[in-house]
Amino acid sequence: MKIGVAKEIKNHEYRVGLSPASAKELISHGHEVSITTGAAAGIGLSDDAYTSVGASIAKSNDAIFAENDMIVKVKEPQADECKQLSQGQLLFTYLHLAPDPLQTQLLLESGVTAVAYETITGTNNSLPLLAPMSEVAGRLAVQAGAHCLERAQGGSGVLLGGVPGTEPAKVLIIGGGVVGQNAAQIAIGMGAQVTILDRSVPKLRELDALYQGRATCVYSTAEALEKHAREADLLIGAVLIPGASAPKLVTHETIKTMKTGSVVVDVAIDQGGCFETSKATTHQDPTFIVDNVVHYCVANMPGAVPQTSTYALNNATLPFAIKLANHGWQKAMRQDPHLLNGLNLHAGKLTYQAVAEAQDLAFTNPKELIEQAHTQATLRQA
Rounded to whole angstroms, what are the CA distances from 282 to 13, 84, 248, 302? Predict the structure, then answer.
């Protein structure tokens, strides 16, 4: 298979879809890999790092989209990129379609077969390709929030861990999943007073045992959220419904009750955000203020640390990329139901139910689609 790696064009996005090590692995399986010149410059690598493992260098993204069977990226394709995709091509990247009807429509029109990192599943309903970036985003959320609390950034001027004789900042984390756990770990390490809200009692027990009293674990109700938000210096939204739009858990009215100069970080912004006042921002212009509350809503947070993020992401994506390349997407998905869960679009059909529901579009069952394609292929061979 001919595999192309496009240079990311989203604002301040420096990650790259395949590292040289990943490219080498795919080449060792008999595939051809090409990458846009300069695509890995953001992680400190030259084109030579790829040619030395057998990859070829394309002069532009246009060539990558025109000449390859599978396109590997990090972030969702921008409008111009969507228009360069075509039926019969395989796109393997993060998509986050639910809050993005324009991208959905453009990809449907292209006819491309699109596999989303964020909806591929693992054992125990895990999301193995989302997890590494959730780990990065959770840790970054506290780092970014601490910076935004500085007075020069519009914050209240509170030091997250305080110093002897002063109170530490109060950090409220909504959601005890991968993002929330990693945010709590960093906030606790920085000396903050941490509270975690979650609606799963078993999860709260797990977190209580994990942090051994260093974080307060509270069952999430509207009343609890409002109470702790009023007291928080830093509020981190870390909720997720796989593939679906994030629920708006923090209302504008709740934001109004927060302290002047407090900070909210919406890690769920890729899926539309979990605060009513959220809107996507960029690393170039990361914050805005609503009712004296600083909002940090960068839609590609892990792009701020592209070296760590690229290698962490490749560790998770490579096994699936190899399956897709070795067997083709149809056979690979018939063999692996977890990979099938990553199929969001095929030949103008929407195959992920949460996206269809979010945008009120027709849904095609991916299992039925795969079986139909297999039957047709068998008949052609006969």
Answer: 9, 24, 21, 12
